Each structure stands twice: as structure tokens, then as C-alpha cells.
Amino acid sequence: MAGGAALARGALLCALLCAAAAAAEGGSGDNPTPGAFGHVYRGAVNISSERVYAFAYRSEPGQVDALRVYVNSSSENLRYPILFVVRQQKGVLSWQVPLIFRGLYQRTYNYQEVSRTLCPFEPTSGTRPSDQIIFVDVTSMAPFNIAYELLVTRLENFQLETDKAFNFTASPSQPQYFLYKFPQDVDSVIINVVSDAAYPCSVVSVQDIVCPVYDLDHNVEFNGVYQSMTKQAAITVQRKDFPGEQFFVVFVIKPEDFACGGSVLSSIHGNVNRTWNLQRTKNLQVTIVPSIKKSVYVQAMFFSFLSFLSFYLGSVVVAFVHYIRVQRKASAGRLSPEHGSEMMTSSHPISASTPEGSSYGAIDKSSSSGGCQLSSPECRPPAGSDTDSSVEEESDFDTMPEIESDKNIIRTKVFLYLSDLSRKDRRIVSKKYKIYFWNIITIAVFYALPVIQLVITYQTVVNVTGNQDICYYNFLCAHPLGVLSAFNNILSNVGHMMLGFLFLLIVLRRDILHRQAMEMKDIYTLDYGIPKHFGLFYAMGIALMMEGVLSACYHVCPNYSNFQFDTSFMYMIAGLCMLKLYQTRHPDINASAYSAYASFAVVISLAVLGVVFGKNDMWFWVIFSLIHILASLALSTQIYYMGRFKIDDPDSDMGIFRRAVMVLYMDCIQQCSRPMYMDRMVLLIVGNLVNWSFAIFGLVYRPRDFASYILGIFICNLLLYLAFYIIMKLRSSEKLLPIPMFCIVATAVVWAAALYFFFQTLSSWEETPAESREKNRPCILLGFFDDHDVWHFLSAAALFFSFLVLLTLDDDLDTVRRDKIPVF
């Protein structure tokens, strides 16, 4: 072994001496071989023999000449590769064969065929042709001959043309890039790249006219803007970003498909060198089309604002018509209270006998309106004795033990009327509900500011790094403006803000009219209709505006990490709507603002945990499903017993269990044939079935989009409760006036249209960026807005109409006494 090593070292030393002697005497490396374009040169090199080829050509004025060098070697010896060095007038390009690419887990892939496009010469500004020359050096440190092939060609289709498709082929070792120059009348273009095959994974890059061009897998991300691609890619390029008004479009094929969502083949697992040659060839087609002009931006902005200003105009018309009707009604004389009380077909539309053995203190229904109530004029404090802002939500009188007993008697009656649940002082209850408004403003400010800061950082990172895989846009309809990459997705959220502000104005008008009526001691305002508390309506308007702000923030850079920005206030909107619907007939026992917003905070916290742990962690879904089911049962119990369900017994440590057994016996065994509160029981059974179905679905399928999963739970519960409310309203012989009927129909129609566009998936951060781009589609409205933008427009209108439904749904009860309005 030692003798063999000595012989090898001796042979290597002799070879080095021979090479030095040849260099001293003037070997083949000092006499370049004249080369011809399109001719294949074959030869062999070793440590003592190298080859130099010289290719001369003439460049015409204003013409961009690009050359492509193709080399091939059958050798797979990684210790002694062949080195190819191309020397140009202003640069040097070199590579080795076999060309090595590295993948995940240090896997390597070797290619024997390599072709590279040389950085083109800058066109001369003179009128005479110029002579150019390049040298191709072929060397190797191998002590033995290694064969090679060399081919140099001039590219005839190096410059891409506008609106003209160009087809070509690329592979990891044979990348391609082309030149594009902006026409005089074009300020922005869209580069569309398509392929019939999803794999191999590729990268499309746009780079400035500088040398060297980064066209290999390990350096393509060093310069310019780039996207990964399977079947489709699109990059919008603006003239202002390239001072020379031209750029390179670079196409690189990756050695592995992992970055595009593909899996690593089982045959290449392990840290083993593999020879792939041309197995990863991909056929591509590139088309560069002009983007929209500045006038389209102006048209889109006018369309967005004028569309929603029409809602303002419609509201003014409705308010004017209402004012005229009120004036005519006032001049003709208002209806008397006795006549108004007869508008209901029956004073007690829902009647049934109290089940025998009931232990909930049901009293005769005639007593529901008897006695002195806090809402009656006789028991109401003087008009000038308004309490200040420090008044407690519950008065001192309300916290006395006798009043607690009275609550148990009244709220556990079989048939409740609104007068039973509107006994508290109106001013105290109004102050309680105004806390919703002030709290949501505070929450909005503290939530929105860091969100805005974060998305600005995201957009800055995208602009600085050029990595367009960070954000999941619809790249076929992403129109930049300033530093924003997709201004159209942000502009389309203006509807939420404008309609939210309009809803606040409508509520403010109603609030002012109500206050004026209260100051005039109007009997219809004091003792008739649903008690008017506007705090929740104000909170809903702010929530709608903030949904527009946060949705716009999310669409600055939509991705998996910040999707909860787009849904957080949707949770609040759904929750506030349910609270408002419940408050309508239960003004005294609705949840306080603090407990409601604390519940929303818990939901948003769960949403964040779902984003982090909800992908594959089974333990998270088990815990969440248990919390969901237990919360549904607890809330159902509170609703069924009107907040008066208690299982504590101070006389005995075991009283809690005895009370639980008694409740189960009374409600589930003795009265099993018919629950005491049948309507509530039906609603709660259906609601629990829906929520348990959601819990089981989440536990089995574990959807990755956890934020949308929670939002679906909220929306389904809201729709279920609204349907129950309307059915019970009609069942109680109440009417739907024309305005709420119109709003209900408009809500249903607009929501149906909005959901159609919502399910037109244009991108998906549940997949890789390259797979998401397969779903990209062109604009459909004004050449500026895509399907998701239309969803923004329609969902804003649908939410606005939904709010109007809640605002006007019980206007027919304004002339009905509260002791004749049933609670359900």
C-alpha cells in the first residue's frame, strides 16, 4: 500500500513538471483555437493539457447579442471535475462539470450536461458595428484525460415581445433568461408564466440589467423579485423600478420539489450523490402583457366610493319620507293608547297551563303587569334627578334580598312578558349598554395599532427581499400602488368603513329622536314597545368599521400568520349581534360589556392557539372540543332558566349535589313528557346539536383554517338564533313592517351573492405559495377587482343590511304595551 501511494505521488509530480515545461515552451493554452458558432467541439483535458477557444463576432448598432454555452462530459468523478471559464469583455463566468446541486438534508444532485446564457454586451450607441470576442477555457486537475463536448450558439429569440407567447425548456443545470424592454407607452406589465406540468418545481425571477445574472438554484434569490412556481406564476413589473427601462426574466428549475409542496421520491432518500441529467426538464411558456393604466385606478376609486355613497343617498331619502309621514301623522292626531293596545290579535298569544308539580314559583299571568314598576311614570324618578356616570349598574334597591326573591318568582314564570324583564331603571340600563361602545373603541385602538405596524413590516420585507412567496396574493389581479403590492384588495374594504359610519349615523338619529321623546314624556316611548338602548348598536357600527380596517391590514400581506386579523372583529360582530338579539326581549338580564368582551378575548386566544397548535396536535382539538361542548351546555342552562339557575345550598356541604339531583329529577324525569319552557328547549336542543356537530367535525377532520372554523361556529349560531326569533315573532302574531321585510330580503340576497364570490378561491395559505398561485385568476370587475374584492363589497352591504334588520325588526311593537309583548 505504501509503495502504491509513493508511485501515485511520483506520477503526479511528473505530470506537474511536464505541464510546467509545456507552459514554458508555449503549449496549447497559449494558442486559442478559433471557434465557430453552432459547431460541436470534442476533446479531452487533464492536468497537463487545457484547451482555449476564441469566438469572435460582430455586433450591430442597437442590437443585443446573447450567447449560450453548452457543455457535456460523461465523467462522474467529483474529485476531478472539468472547469469551464468564459471570459468576456466585462466579466467572467465559470462552472464545473459535474455540476452539483444541494437539496434538503445535504442530499446532492449531479448533472453532466450544463448550458448557460452569457451576460449580453451592452448595445453600442454608435452607427458602426463593433467587433466582440469571448474566450472559453477548458481545464481539469485530473492526472488522466477527461472527455468533453462544447457548443456555443447565438440566441435569436433573446428579447421577449409584448403580447407574444414564447415557449422554451429549462432544467436545473440549464437555466434560461431573457431580456424585455418597456415600450414607450407602457408603464407596467404583467409577466405570465404557465406550464402543463406542476413539477419539477421552478422559480421565476425578475432582475435588473447587471452582470452576473443569478440563474442557479443557490443564487437566484440574491437579486430582484422572485416567485416559486408549479403550473402558473405572475409578476407585475413597473417601469419606475428599472431606470434602464429593461430587465431580465430568469427561469430556474429547482433540484427538488419540496419548496413547491412536492414530496421527495423514495428512490433518492439518503445522503447519496445522484446523477439526474435531463430528467427534470420543464416546458414553460412566458407572455408579457401590459398592465392597467393610471386611469383605471381612478375609475376604480370613484366606483368604490360612489357605490357606497349611494347607500347614504338612500338613507337620506328614507329618512325624509319618514319625516313627512311623521309630520302628517302628527297633524292628523296620533293613535290613542287604547287603540294601540288592540293592534295585537291577542294579549297573550302563547298560552298553556303550568305543569303540575312545578317548583319554580309561577304566578298568575295577570300579576305580570300589576304593581308599581320602575318603568312606570308613578315610580320613575323625577326628570331632573338623572344619575351621574359613577352610578352602579345595579341600584341599591335591586340588590336587596327581597328583590332577588322577586327575580326568582318573575323570571321562572312559564310565560314571560317584556314588562317582567324591563323593571330596572332605564338610565342605569342605558349606561350599562353604553359601556359596550366605549370598550370596543379602546379595544380597536389597542388591537389595530400593532397590527398596522406588523403588516407594514411584512410589506417592507417583501419589497426589500423581493421574495413574493411571503404573501399570498392573487398575482393575476394584484395592482400595486406606492409600497403596496395589491392596492385593489385594500381599496375594496372601504365599504365596511363607509357603511359602518353610515350605520352609526342612523343609530345616532334614532337615539336623538328617542331622547327628545323621553324629554317630552311621550307615553309611547315610556311604556310601549321594545325599550330603546343603543349602546350595542353603536358597538356594532364600530366593529363593522374596524372589520374593514383589519381586513385591509390583512390584505397588505395575506398569509397564514396574520389571518386572525381578518377574523377577530368578525367574531365580535357575530357575538354583538347575538347579544343585541337577546337584549331585545331581555333588557334586564343581558350580559355586561366586561363579561362579553372577556368572552371574545378567550375566543381570540383560542384562535391564536389554533393557529399555532391546530395543525396536527390531537391534544389541542380534544381540549377545544371539550371546552366547546361544556360552554354550550353552560350557556344553554343560563338561557333556559333566564339566569336564575343556581345549585348552591348554604345549609349543607352536600347541598350542591342534592340540588343538582332535584333539578335533574324535576326537569328530566317528572316533566319529561313536556318541558316547562318548550320554545326555549327546542331552540337549545337544536343549538346544542349544531355545536356538538361542529365539535365532532373539528375533532375528526382538524381543519387547518382554525380561524374560519371558529367563525363558522359563530355565524351558524347567529343564523339559528335569528331564524328562531323571526319564527317566534310571527308565531306571536307580530308583524313585519315593509322596511324590516325589505332588509331581510336584501340581507338574504346579498349574502347569497357574497358567499358565491367568497367560495371562488383565488389563493390559499393552507398550501405552498406555488400551489396557491395555481388558483390565481384574472380580474372580473373594471379590470381592477377580482372575485375576492367583490366579496368585500357584497359582504359589507350584507352586514349593513343585517344590522338594519336588528335595528328595525321590532318597529311594529312601538304602539304595543310592554305587558303584552311576549318574551322568547
UniProtKB/TrEMBL annotation:
It is found in: Membrane. Residues 366-376 have a biased composition (Low complexity). It is a multi-pass membrane protein. InterPro entries: SID1_TM_fam (IPR025958). One of its GO terms (cellular component) is plasma membrane. Residues 1-26 form the signal peptide. Keywords: Glycoprotein, Membrane, Signal, Transmembrane, Transmembrane helix. Residues 335-399 are annotated as: Disordered. One of its GO terms (molecular function) is double-stranded RNA binding. The chain crosses the membrane at residues 300-324, 436-456, 490-508, 536-557, 563-582, 594-613, 619-641, 681-700, 706-727, 739-759, 790-809. Residues 389-399 have a biased composition (Acidic residues). Residues 343-357 have a biased composition (Polar residues). Belongs to the SID1 family. This is SIDT1 protein. It comes from Peucedramus taeniatus.
